[in-house]
């Protein structure tokens, strides 16, 4: 790292906000996907969009790569500095600069925590709909970069459906706004291009987000089933019926037992599968939807129904759902979280395939996922000190992913491609499609300094992958969670 660059950044931001000691850099060496680790050469912690622009301009002048990072809750290695360089930590940019009730918008800096925004909106009778499971920790900048989803995406949509405008530092150092409050913009949809681009086209610093009125009435139904097929069939029937729940989540038997043991939430442990189904809206509409829902549940042999009506009862159910990863820690010290999307009609066959793969590779695979939009999240539990177990777990994951793609699925539902799945992009996209994406990257970032080596396959001269989570690259050494 150029000492001239270090001095320049220290003079601008202050020595306190430039980190370069080994113990400081170690805290940035991985995200929540711990299977890949890479330390930055330097971490800069700006407070304003103008300071972000200064950092990018300084990196351009020094020909040094830079990578933006939020809370580090990502699961695809998207915020790892694969070429070293400067890590731009955006957590200090945590202001909600405006809540506009009349236009139902909020203007926020990207370091705002997702749940904190909703806490601030509560008094206004509004909420920001995208709610990933890491909602209490993840920041909006990371959500935007990865186009995060969440429990309520079946009805309200994913992150891209709620972003009206973005302030971005482009890879030439320009600080600019794209889009606007009026929900209509002319010309190319640059906001849509930026959402989900994983920091490869620029560093997002602020956003104007769309807000939604808090529904008048909300109920959450816990429905237990004696078979995965009945639960999966219920999901398909709900969607086919035209009923639009605000959330539709699946938990398998292993997950239910794990959550009960960890948090004593009283889920029915004799069930093979549990669905959490949320309905919201006007009271009359909710009554109509509840009648239809109960008819569907009865047709699929539901064994137990519990209703959460009060805010505390609903919160307890959703807390249990979002705490499943913590509950898995009782069974293994680490996990690999798959993220893929399939047609909802293929839900039952794919779950059967997952359990068959788990048995064949002798690994624990447990399932909790967004059933309403077909976003599967098989969790492979493993001991990182057991290299053979890691290898079998990754082989099982790869086979599951291939099976999902074979039925018309996609590589990722909400976690992004990052470095985790970059070498697998040719499985879903043609060479022509990939080249078109790369051309866009070159137009925005001809020097390839903005979060390099992400999304697209990176191959050596001999044709072998340089990075990817695959059995051939994992030894089990140095993995932790």
As a whole number of angstroms, the C-alpha radius of gyration is: 23 Å
Structural class: alpha+beta
Distance between the termini: 29 Å
CATH architecture of the largest domain: 2-Layer Sandwich
Q: Got a strand count?
A: 20
Question: What is the overall silhouette?
Answer: globular
CATH class of the largest domain: Alpha Beta
Beta-strand content bin: 15-25%
Low-confidence stretches: 460-468, 470-481
Average pLDDT reading: 92
The portion of residues assigned to helices is 25-40%
Oligomer: single chain
CATH fold descriptor of the largest domain = Uridine Diphospho-n-acetylenolpyruvylglucosamine Reductase, domain 3
Largest sheet: 7 strands, antiparallel
* Biggest β-sheet: strands ordered side by side in the sheet: 15-12-14-13-18-20-16
Number of helical elements: 15
User: How many domains would you count in the coordinates?
Assistant: 5
Question: Can you walk through the features of this model?
Answer:
- Helix 1 packs antiparallel against helix 3 and helix 13 (347-361) runs antiparallel to helix 14.
- It contains 15 helices and 20 strands.
- It has a seven-stranded antiparallel sheet, sandwiched between helices.
- It has five domains: 3-89, Uridine Diphospho-n-acetylenolpyruvylglucosamine Reductase, domain 2; 96-213, Uridine Diphospho-n-acetylenolpyruvylglucosamine Reductase, domain 3; 217-326, Alpha-Beta Plaits; 332-406, Alpha-Beta Plaits (2-Layer Sandwich); 422-464.
- The two termini are 29 Å apart.
- The chain is an alpha+beta fold and 481 residues long.
